[in-house]
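Q: Hi! First time doing this. I have a protein sequence and I read that you can turn it into a structure. Is that right? Here it is:
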Amino acid sequence: MNDLVEVDRAEIHILVDNATDGLSSTPINVEGEFAFQNRRGLRASSDRCLCCAVHGLSCLVTVERGSTRHAVLFDSGPEEYAFERNTTRLGVELGDVEGIVLSHGHWDHAGAMKLALQRIRGGNGGRTVPFHVHPGMFRQRGVRLPDGGVRLMDDVPSIAELEGLGAEIVSTTAPQHLLDDMFHVSGEIPRVTPFERGLPNQVRRTDDGRGWEPDELLMDERWLAVNVKDKGLVVLSACSHAGIVNVLTHAQASFPGVKLQTVLGGLHLSGTNEKIIPETVAAMRSFGLAQIGAGHCTGWRAMAALAQAFGDDVLAPSAVGKRYWF
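A: Yes, that's right. Below is the predicted 3D structure, encoded as structure tokens:
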């Protein structure tokens, strides 16, 4: 897969995330929500211009090479209200989206997918939209409770629902290049670290639909990457259930000789994974990342540890409306 085409420029716009932060200063290649709105001609501060934060993630990834421009939607966040509010208030042209990648089969990344498809097709003249999934995303999931019961998770939209709304489903476990080979969607992520063990106590329905089986590794999770000329690989890891060190190790192995420039997304170091923050932060040092755009499920304790380890020169936390460009 070394033929991933270098792009001249990449932009990542955060459409949905757990946090909103329009006031904090940012690195030169990052623009906060309020600065972005001001540049668009905002004339008065008002509740009518604010985006909202919600537990989930959605990113619009746009690349340019010469006169060619492509855009991909990476996840949709958990529900339609936040997706519609934020994309409308940010002035996002969803009709420009040429493909959708669902990172894994969890509701907080897929709950607004049906609306996203409708909005994209409403802006593109009704054309079908390539929709990239892993076949393991669609089983019902839940969390095993201490008393032995199962707390259900909402299902992601089914293939039939997505196809009915104009999705052209591409379902595979293999890695893929998209849109003139300017985007890379990983295959299944090898689990090589001894301390990253997925999502404890997650279960999924058995094939016969009558019981539950362990699903802590979430093998349907994938990462998305672009290769920016003179900078290197920008990796989006929506939730990092595989472990962010496993994700970065896989990205490095997938593109030997290409520098890992940036990782953005949720690092899932909150909740039961708080105990592996020290090992994770220490292991991340070896990748020589120029920027870490951590957000979503990273958690404040991990964010504090990353800030202490990497400082403001590297850590640029994600928030709703932020725009990163490379």
